[in-house]
Write a structure and sequence with these properties.
Number of helices: 5
Helix content: 40-55%
Number of strands: 5
Order of helices and strands: HEEHHEHEEH
Shape: globular
Distance between the termini: 45 Å
Low-confidence stretches: none
Strand content: 15-25%
Length: 145
């Protein structure tokens, strides 16, 4: 059975829902190699009291441990929200092959801030963007009450 971008982004959305359940900004990520999820992550910033505990950083660390190496050259990251500048920088150094983004972050996303990913990294966006944005809107609506 071959999986596609929708399948893996749905898995990232499940991670985002875990973050939402923990009262974290609902961002989720999975890293895939050869049609297999090797790492999962969701925001844990509040729970760990760590500003670097973004979903992408959690997934990068887990994938690197799984592969026993720092480069993710054969991997794809699926993430529900465009990575920030910190995560974009980390992704640059991993040399990740592909990044698939749900919702874009026009205020804090790496691309709007002029951060470049590794020159061989392929980026796709808009996969289940509405679902990703809906989780974010739900979270911030509750916060603003």
């Amino acid at each position: 059975m071959e999986f596609d971008d929708l399948f893996f982004m749905k898995q990232a959305l499940l991670e985002a829902e875990k973050a939402l359940d923990k009262d974290e900004v609902p961002v989720g990520a999975v890293i895939v190699v050869n049609q297999r999820i090797i790492a999962r992550g969701h925001n844990l910033i509040e729970n760990l009291n760590d500003v670097t505990a973004h979903a992408e950083m959690q997934a990068i660390t887990s994938a690197s441990n799984f592969l026993n190496g720092k480069f993710l050259e054969d991997c794809t990251l699926y993430v529900t929200l465009e990575p920030c500048s910190m995560c974009g920088g980390a992704l640059y150094w991993t040399r990740i092959a592909r990044v698939v983004i749900g919702a874009m972050d026009f205020n804090r996303g790496y691309s709007s801030l002029g951060i470049k990913l590794y020159h061989r990294t392929i980026v796709s966006n808009g996969i289940l963007a509405d679902d990703s944005q809906k989780l974010l809107n739900e979270f911030f609506k509750k916060r603003r009450k």
